[in-house]
Design brief:
Layout lengths: L1 E4 L6 E4 L7 H14 L8 E2 L2 H8 L3 H13 L3 E4 L3 E4 L29 H8 L26 H19 L9 H14 L9 E4 L2 H12 L5 E6 L3 H9 L3 E8 L2 E2 L1 H7 L5 E4 L13 H14 L2 E5 L24 E6 L11 E4 L5 H10 L6 H12 L2 H27 L5 E2 L7 E5 L6 H10 L5 E2 L12 E5 L5 H20 L2
Parallel strand pairs: 7-8, 7-10, 10-11, 11-12
Antiparallel strand pairs: 1-2, 3-5, 4-5, 6-13, 8-9, 12-13, 14-15, 15-17, 16-17
Helix pairs in contact: 1-3, 2-3, 4-8, 5-12, 6-12, 7-8, 7-11, 13-15, 14-15
Amino acid sequence: MTKVATSLPNIAVSLDKSSDDALYRQLYDQLRLAILSGRLMPGTRLPSSRDLADEFGVARNTVVNAFDQLLAESYLESRVGDGTYVSRQLPDDLLRAESDGHVSQNQSGTRPSLSRWGTEAVSVRTMPGNYAGKSRPFRTSTPAFDEFPYKLWERLLTRRWRESGRDLVPYNDSAGYLPLRTAISSYLNATRGVRCAPEQIIIVSGSQHALELSTKVLLDQRDKVWIEDPGFLGARAVFRALGARITPVPVDSEGLNVAAGKRHCPKPRLIYVTPSHQYPLGMTLSLARRLALLKFASDAGAWIIEDDYDSEFRYVGRPLAALQGLDNEQRVIYVGTLSKVLFPSIRIGYIISPPDLVDAFVGARRLAGHQCPTLEQAVLADFIAEGHFARHIRRMRTLYAERQYALVKAAARELTGMLEVQPSDAGMHLMGWLPDGVNDRTAAKAAKDQGIEVTPLSIYFIEPPARSGLRLGYTGYTPRQISQAVRVLGGVLRTVSATR
């Protein structure tokens, strides 16, 4: 790379002919930074493109292309018969870009002005940790990537693109690809006791997106919301971002305590619940509580969001019927996702709307980005309609039951007296209960330092928890990985217990 002292005042230009970046782009970048930093002042006359090309030892077109880009962006101005100048219209207070290419921090001493939604997006996490990078035990919400039928998916994708790719590239219905909505409707009616037509289904980018849209459709600022305590961080975040008033409702062995909710907040606008497998504790909302909740919502004029986030994975008996199937008054908005069933990056979930709200939800989906990618929806529709989805679910139920057993067995061997881990009839994680006096956040941090990802239960609570615990995902890890990780976790907990 050669640095050339030029006839331009106060700057030297470095052009690297071995770089992958085009020479005109290198010249453009350096002239632009010189202008923004004030080294080339407004009104400065530049040498001709021919003279600069001779100085740099490059073709004249290289300089002309750089000049043309700067002229187009108003950094330079051309005067007929008089040459090219740095624009005089650049305000002095904008000519302060750093010359090293890094984004400079706000130097004004004031924080940027954000909406309530923006402030919440910055300050509240929706996940308990960093889910980037390779998954490690016991990261939660992680399916068995090693067992996904990749070759089958590739074959379906190739076939769909070959047969109808051109039909899938234009804009599609904001509610989603109709064959996918039809396939989901048939599957849920048969397996979850859901009652819906394809026209009630809106395809979204996962359950978090569904919660955001539902919140914006149903809530105004300062509306009252029931939320389970402990409960899903993503739901809490979107309610707070909109300015809703949250009432934490305790859960017990029968799930959401409806009577306690009525005492604390008798007129909610919205109730958020995970009835099939309470998040994160794992109990099921009893039939008596389901009926009581539906009656209360009817009497109070409240909407219910039923988040059915991992209901497919039930290891004893058949999957439980959805709350939505018991709803005779169309008060329940049913939210589901395929990200945990298949793989997270597919980003496909769905809302089942009561008939009277369909137009509002479709409009909200249109405002939030119009649609999900149609090709992936078409492939998924084929995957479901041809029976591959149901077979995959059956295989994963068997596999996940084996992996849960491996975790319970390893915990009994390595963690007795330090972490009480009991089996569960459903789900993708287990709760481990710590002895009195052990701080779950301290334990989780110590485990992370040893390469083990566990989630402290306390982060899911609004009111102070009565007991500390750790959440352990098991579905994404082989029995051997589970056994090795439990052994490491045992060493961590022995150290933490000894120092309390």
